[in-house]
């Protein structure tokens, strides 16, 4: 068993909201270190592993039965359309980490015809990427970035029974071991560094959370299920008006199309929809503020995270938490990398 290795606090010469996004947490201003992660602004990746969707995969039997039937009988026509509407990320998980992403939306599946305990990611189709391999890659990245902290949301399970859940949880605990932050603490960067924690793992299965103190309950995700940026912003503002949750939560800026919309927009794609909506959504992001107040945000998760300076815009919201007396020495750096 690995011994817990405490991480030294970064140098007090930390620069504000570092443009080297792979290290943005470890090089953030010291005044942010004691703020709960639930009161910071964190960039997230929606359906984080869809870059690896298997072009030969069948449609998940637990998703749309109609779409699965159509794909079976009109595969050559329907399958390319499904791919266009299911691939929400271009960058790999490691590239997303380097780009500054600190929340990952992991949809986990077990193929119904697979007798092994191998898990894949899923978004209508299964991925070629194997969950355990991706988690080991993340561990190696964390070892090279000891002051960065990430949130892994294991959710929307597809085809897993209780034995599968037990095996998956064992994998998570084996891989991240003492880096897993227990749920009985209020995590701040400083607290996590002091105890060697780097991973918060939320798990969308109540029984497994009850049995494992290393797992956090499912993190609320504000999903608008809208096809336009304007309608999505209206939804998010309505949710803000109702008040933010007390702990970690996600505001999703990912647009969504149902089957009827897809069939009436056969030559369109989720990427085109996303890029069309990003300018307006980025304007909305820049108006937000993190913190404990009712109308504050926490994690903002999106598709194609490398586009339109999304990650930097979300990270820059943390400037609003920096006390004014800190600004005279920081002003030359604060505007670096902004658009």
Can you give keywords for this protein?
disordered C terminus; 10 strands; alpha/beta; ten-stranded mixed beta sheet
Report what the structure shows:
The protein has 339 residues and is α/β, with parallel strands linked by helices. 34% of the residues lie in helices and 14% in strands. Strands 1, 2, 3, 4, 5, 6, 7, 8, 9 and 10 form a ten-stranded mixed sheet that branches. α1 packs across α2 (75-86) and α10 (270-286) runs parallel beside α11. The chain is globular. Residues 12-17 and 331-339 have low confidence and may be disordered.
End-to-end separation in angstroms reads 46 Å
DSSP helix fraction: 25-40%
Largest sheet descriptor: 10 strands, mixed
Strand content range: 5-15%
Integer average pLDDT: 90
User: What is the approximate shape?
Assistant: globular
- What is the strand tally? 10
What is the rounded Rg? 20 Å
Helix tally equals: 12
Task: Give the topology string: H per helix, E per strand.
Answer: EHHHEEEHEHHEHEEHEHHEHH
Unreliable parts: 12-17, 331-339
- Give me the secondary-structure category: alpha/beta
Can I get a quick summary?
The protein has 339 residues and is of the alpha/beta class.
């Amino acid at each position: 068993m690995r011994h817990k290795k405490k991480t030294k606090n970064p140098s007090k010469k930390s620069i504000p909201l570092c443009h080297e996004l792979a290290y943005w947490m470890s090089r953030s201003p010291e005044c942010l270190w004691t703020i709960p992660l639930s009161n910071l602004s964190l960039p997230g990746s929606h359906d984080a592993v869809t870059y690896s969707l298997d072009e030969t995969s069948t449609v998940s039997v637990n998703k749309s039965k109609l779409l699965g039937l159509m794909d079976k009988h009109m595969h050559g026509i329907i399958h390319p359309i499904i791919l266009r509407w299911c691939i929400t990320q271009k960058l790999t998980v490691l590239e997303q980490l380097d780009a500054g992403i600190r929340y990952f939306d992991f949809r986990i599946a077990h193929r119904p015809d697979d007798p092994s305990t191998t898990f894949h990611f899923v978004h209508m189709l299964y991925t070629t990427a194997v969950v355990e391999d991706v988690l080991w890659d993340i561990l190696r990245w964390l070892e090279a970035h000891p002051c960065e902290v990430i949130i892994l949301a294991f959710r929307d399970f597809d085809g897993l029974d209780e034995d599968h859940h037990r095996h998956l949880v064992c994998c998570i605990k084996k891989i991240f071991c003492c880096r897993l932050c227990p749920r009985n603490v209020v995590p701040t960067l400083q607290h996590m560094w002091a105890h060697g924690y780097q991973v918060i793992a939320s798990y969308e299965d109540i029984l497994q959370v009850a049995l494992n103190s290393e797992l956090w309950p499912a993190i609320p995700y504000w999903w608008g299920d809208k096809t336009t940026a304007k309608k999505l912003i209206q939804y998010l503002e309505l949710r803000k008006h109702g008040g933010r949750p007390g702990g970690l939560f996600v505001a999703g800026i990912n647009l969504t199309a149902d089957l009827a919309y897809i069939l009436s927009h056969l030559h369109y794609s989720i990427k085109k929809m996303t890029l069309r909506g990003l300018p307006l959504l980025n304007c909305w992001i820049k108006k937000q503020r993190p913190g404990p107040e009712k109308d504050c945000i926490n994690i903002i998760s999106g598709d194609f995270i490398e586009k339109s300076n999304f990650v930097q815009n979300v990270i820059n919201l943390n400037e609003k938490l920096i006390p004014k007396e800190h600004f005279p020495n920081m002003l030359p750096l604060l505007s670096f990398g902004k658009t």
